[in-house]
Amino acid sequence: MTAELVRGQNHPLPQTRLEIRVSAGQPVIAGATLSDEHGKVRGVEWVAHPGSPQLPGLEVSRQAAADHRLAVDLGALPESVHRVNVLLALPVGVGGPVRFGAVAAPFVAVTGLDGAEVASYTITDLDAESAVVALELYLRQGAWKVRAVGQGYAAGLAEMLGDQGLPQARELATAIQDAVASGLARSVSAPPPRTPDGDRARHTAAHPAPGQTGAAVPGADQSSTGTPSTGTPSHGPHTHGTPSHGTTAHGPNTHGVGGHGTTPHGTNAHGTNAHGPGSRAPQAGGPGGPLGAGGSGGPVNYAHPGRQAAAPPSPPPTAPPAQPGRPATPVAGDATGWSMEERLYNQVWGMFEDLARATAAYRSAVDFAESRMEQELDRVLSDPRSRIGSTGDNARAAARAKHDKLVDQAREALDRDLAQLAAESAVVEPALPPAFARWDNPVWHGYRVPMEVPMALRVGDLHLPERTDLRIPMLVRLPLERGLWIDSGRSGSDAALMTDSGQLRRLAMDTAVATAARLLSVYPAGDFSVHVIDPAGSGAAALAPLVQSGVLDEAPAAGAGGVAAVLAKLTQRADLVQMAIRGGAPDSLPPGLDAAEQLLIVNDFPHGFDDRAVTQLRYLADEGPAAGVHLMMVADREDASAYGPVLDPLWRSLLRITPVPDDHLADPWVGHAWTFEPLLAPPGSQVLQQVLGRAAEARRAWRR
Fold first, then answer.
1. For the whole model, what pTM was predicted?
2. What CA–CA distances, in Å, run from 483 to 147, 363, 629, 662?
3. Which of 203, 411, 204 lies closest to 325 in space, CA to CA?
4. At the topology level of CATH, where does 478-703 sit?
5. C-beta of residue 453 within 8 angstroms of C-beta of residue 273
6. Considering the chain, what percentage of its residues have pLDDT values greater than 90?
7. 3-186: which CATH topology?
8. Domain map (residue ranges) of the chain
């Protein structure tokens, strides 16, 4: 039975191998310190944090996230360690909350490896604090206990680490924040919060983890398993509801050996746009929305056209319930939502979460099996009498047999979950709307220019090495709240290293054009414009579909003069919109201002860019999305190394995607290294040209 602790209360720990789950509603840093019998942290090597996530007997998340799962093996800690403090801190310099009083009360729970909660604690009464000691695991008379601490520090990590006796507290606090900031650009964004009942209302048979009497379904939200996790929303900020603590929900695809589950959260609901056919009303949502109706002078509207405040209804039953012990037939759109588009969006994120969890459970079980086998072999080898002869051989064989049995059980559970996800993917993929679909989806054959902006856009596919053919769509919310960097360099994956540099640059531009085409295709006519900077004209061949279709208002800018003109125009537009917003007078914008969302494609950066141009690009990356100007860089970061660290903030502000498969992206739950694959039109297909042609025709008709 779970012990719900209050500040200062303690509870015995029945085992030494534990997990500590953290749910904060907003991205937080999770770490831990080891202390001696006097409560002192002896050095930086006794602190587990995102920059150094592993210590003997302890592993924490590598990045900031709304939810974490920390692994603890008290039996593997150094003998001089008598206390483990679990720390939470808010990341700085990322635009999020700066005090815990502005977020939902963090919730922490200590669980066994089977997922059963031992003790939980909701950290209340926090206000100006930006760091807090959540829990303390301590050794008393040979037995380990957990105590609810909840000690907050207004001065942040440095004060908290210094209070534990660490001499290098300030330096380490800075290093931790830097490690978190450097990880933001490689993260796959978390989906919006789920409804109180969970976004993933699956019609499948649940397999409760040990200790569970019922099963709830996993939702399209950020919850963590395993160790590292990240939460850097390119979807922008969302208002998280207060976690529904005390109940751990397990879905059919969230467990292997150890039974990993999810924790329900609150939600923001997203519905459909109320604008009727022919309406030129704003289509934007969140920072980066277009200006008012008609193209100029109207009010700036930042409300997502499909965003509603109430919780969405549950989906209607679309399939008969499963027979006991057998999974139900998957159904497309079985998540909650106001529209089929939103249901499919939530379902895709639920599949992503399920695959992350199932894989985390499998990997955790394999790690546990290997660790236990090593411990058993160490015990055998520590006794000279059993090192040789039949006794030693039998002990080794027994340890190996136990290891293989655990791994086989874990693989069986993983295969079951992967099969269910593959079946679900097979029915979801054909049902996706154009914004969510691959280029080879038949939905593009009947493409028509939409009247509304969709919730999100698919920019690629993601998969894990456990089953590479199971692809999960990578969706980013619209309007773009974070620019894109398409890496044309040869660093990173084996695929990039094996590709000729010239071919890689061409593939990068092909990816940029395909992504721009998708953006143009999912916006109503006149609501999205594309500008191109190609200083040396090296991207002419790849840009041909955009140029020949007529979707560009101007030819790609070349030379120093062309670069300066385009950047001056877009920075001026961003300035005007920002001043209008801050001055509370959006209707004072010039009549000739283009109200459409703007996308700037920049090729071959930094070649052909002077210091002024670089400063303007940094400004557009930081301030542009809030004014409806979005940046897509096609560049090799190594080429920009001559500028030194001045461009580091630019790269960190962009979401890096690659033109060839690369495993650089992390999920917001457990931090798996996901392989990203871009979306390109099939060889020989004319789908890109056809879609751009219809978009150009619709733009011409809109202007008449």
1. 0.61
2. 44, 33, 9, 19
3. 204
4. Rossmann fold (3.40.50)
5. yes
6. 41
7. Lipoxygenase-1 (2.60.60)
8. 3-186, 189-271+308-438, 478-703
